[in-house]
Each structure stands twice: as C-alpha cells, then as structure tokens.
Design brief:
By secondary structure, the chain is α/β, with parallel strands linked by helices. The chain contains ten helices and six strands. Strand 5 (192-197), helix 8 (206-214) and strand 6 (218-223) form a beta-alpha-beta unit. The two termini are 24 Å apart.
Length: 254
C-alpha cells in the first residue's frame, strides 16, 4: 500500500517506482478523502488520515499489508502501525519524520513561497522541492517530470488549496508532540526500512536518522546528491532495496 506526499495525487507516483514494485506483488495506490478524485474532506490530523486508510483496507478485507509511506504518507504509516500493529507486516518510511520531528510541519517561509506561487508550473516546483541544485540531480528531476507526463488519459484531479491547507494543518499538529520525544517509535516493532536523500529541504534528512535511531527494528539508507525526491532520482537502486527488504529483509547495506 502506497501512501502519498503532501498535495500528491495518484498521478504523482513515478512509474519507475510503482511498476517495478508491482512485479510479483499486488500494489494499492491509496488516495485520502478530499485529494484528487476522492470525495469527502481531507482530515486535519494525521490520525484521521490513518483511520481512513485502515477503513479502506478493512473494506477490502485485507488483514495484513506492507506499507510504503512517502513524506506525509510516512507519518500516516507510523500512526497505522501504532493503532493496528497486526495490520502492517513491513514498513518503508521514505522522506518523512517522526511526530515532533525537526521541520516536519513544512511551514518554513521558503517552502510556503513555492507552495503558494500560482505562476510557477508544478513541474518547476517539483524540481525545486524534490531535487538538489546540482546538474546531475536536476537532470534526474527532469526525467522524473517527463515520466509523470506520460499519463494522458483518466488523469487525477489536482489538489485544491483547501485540501492542501488541511494537510498543512495536520503536519503542523504532527510537529507539536507532547511528552517524551519519539517515545511512540519504540512501540513500532515491525521491520522498517527508512530512506531519504542526503539533503532533504522539505522534511530535513536528520529526521530519517532520528527514525532509524529510535525504531527498534529499522534499517537506514541515505542516497547521495539528492533530496526529498531521492526515491525518484535513484529509482533503480531504491526499488531494488525496497524489494529486497520486502522479500527477505536481511543483507541491506546502510
């Protein structure tokens, strides 16, 4: 089960990631209420988003799944693991952070300026937010944008400002954790693969190190010369690492 990033719709999943991971296994791309073509309102808490995802799985009578949560989706995956441990077999947390993490609200002025710029094409926003400024990273980003553009029929509806606002509110609350920092992570005992780029400007990379430190059964992979969209820039190695983790779980190199 794939859980998507802030404002991302089904059309924002890179086929270079989803297609290889769909070889030999069933894949579900889940879309929260109020996002894309899904009706309803976007929950204003991460827990509310997790509840919808679990109700969706219950409706299909799925009793155990692997979950890949990217960015905001990784926050949702953590709550699912805490609320219904038996429902999740293995977890991949990509470009995300723990409750109370550093900069996980994504409300810094330099980010909000890009989010709110209605004149900037969405493709340019992706290049600025998901990829490093280096030519190699930007080139990979342009290839990613081209892959997204291949889908021309039955396209999803872009996320509206109201829905984005609800998601930002949820992430803002996620950033304000009470009690002992990162204590809940100790309760997530499933095998977890944590991944990110070495310079994520959206959800700072330090959060991936925090996750791997406090999760009792975690492995960490940091990809070079990349940011929030490391899974798309390094799609080949990323899907190989995820497949190895899902199939065997042992022998991955940190």
């Amino acid at each position: 089960m794939f859980l998507q990033h802030f404002t991302g719709t089904l059309d924002n999943w890179d086929p270079a990631v989803t297609d290889p991971l769909a070889l030999g296994r069933s894949v579900i791309l889940f879309e929260c209420p109020g996002i894309g073509c899904s009706n309803g309102k976007v929950p204003e808490t991460v827990a509310g988003m997790a509840d919808h995802a679990m109700k969706f799985l219950d409706a299909f009578e799925l009793t155990q799944v692997d979950v890949l949560g990217f960015s905001l989706g990784g926050m949702v995956a953590q709550v699912m693991a805490l609320k219904r441990p038996a429902l999740l077999r293995r977890i991949i947390l990509t470009g995300t952070g723990p409750e109370g993490g550093i900069g996980v609200a994504m409300d810094r002025p330099e980010l909000l300026k890009i989010f709110a710029d209605q004149k900037m094409p969405s493709s340019e926003k992706l290049l600025k937010l998901f990829f490093e400024a280096t030519e190699s990273s930007q080139s990979a980003g342009r290839q990613f944008v081209q892959r997204l553009a291949r889908r021309t029929e039955d396209k999803d509806t872009p996320t509206i400002a109201e829905a984005a606002g609800a998601q930002l509110k949820a992430m803002s609350a996620w950033a304000r954790s009470g009690g002992e920092p990162y204590a809940d992570l100790k309760q997530i005992t499933q095998p977890v693969l944590v991944t990110n780029g070495n310079n994520d400007i959206m959800i700072p990379t330090v959060n991936s190190f925090i996750l791997s430190e406090h999760l009792p059964n975690a492995q960490l992979i940091i990809y070079p010369d990349s940011g929030h969209g490391a899974l798309f820039q390094h799609a080949g190695p990323y899907t190989s690492h995820v497949s190895e983790f899902l199939n065997h779980g042992d022998g991955l190199v940190d």
